[in-house]
Amino acid sequence: MTTTETAEAVETRTRGRLAGRSELTVAVLLFAIAGYLAFGIATMEVPEGATAPGPRFFPSLIAVAIAVLGIVLAIGVLRSRPEAPSGEYRFHSDWRSLGLVIGGFLAFAVLLVPLGWILSAALLFWVVAHALGSRRRLLDIGLSLVISSAIQLAFSAGLGLTLPGGIFEGIYS
Asked: What's the burial of 167, exposed, middle or buried (CB within 10 Å: 0-12/13-18/19+)?
């Protein structure tokens, strides 16, 4: 090591350029998912009478969005400087939040048919918001009901598909 060479330069040279950049695995995973979707879209059999925009349009948008997210993530990781390891690693898993999210999803799956989409999805959204740290319970309940209702409207009015109505079966259809 010469006197002009910094310790950071020596560290970069000895550990490699990609050391400490494990976030790149997520970017690679996103590229793999986008590639898998693109392959599925390219090999999709489309009936001759399919109208525009066609069954390939929305999956193509999703594949492009996933690829763009992968590119943005990779650029962000490569432009940032990795933190030097302090020698002491501490990991903390929030098991309570994970348990609440899993429990909320299981409750959603069980309650979807008897309660219907609006109430079971609102419950799921509220539980996830609570698990992630929101303490504004009344606002979260209201937003959850609005979002689940908007999704119900988008599916029924926009796409012509019906989600389970549950206890509201006869009210809207």
From this structure: exposed
Task: Map tokens 């690693």 to a residue.
Answer: 89
Looking at residue 5, its amino acid is E
Question: Whose CA is closest to 63, among 94, 40, 93, 86?
Answer: 40
pLDDT digits (tens, 9 = 90+) for 67-77: 999 999 999 98
Token pair for 83: 């933190």
Cα–Cα distance measured from residue 132 to residue 135, given in angstroms and rounded to the nearest whole number: 9
Q: Are 108 and 121 in contact (CB under 8 A)?
A: yes
Residue 156, classified by CB atoms within 10 Å of its CB into exposed (0-12), middle (13-18) or buried (19+), is middle
The mean predicted confidence, pLDDT, of the chain is: 83
- Rg, Å, the chain Cα set: 24
Q: Please state the domain extents for the chain.
A: 7-79, 95-168
Compute the CA torsion angle 60, 65, 70, 72 (nearest 10 deg): 140
pTM of the model: 0.55
* Rounded-to-integer distance, Cα 32 and Cα 24, Å: 12
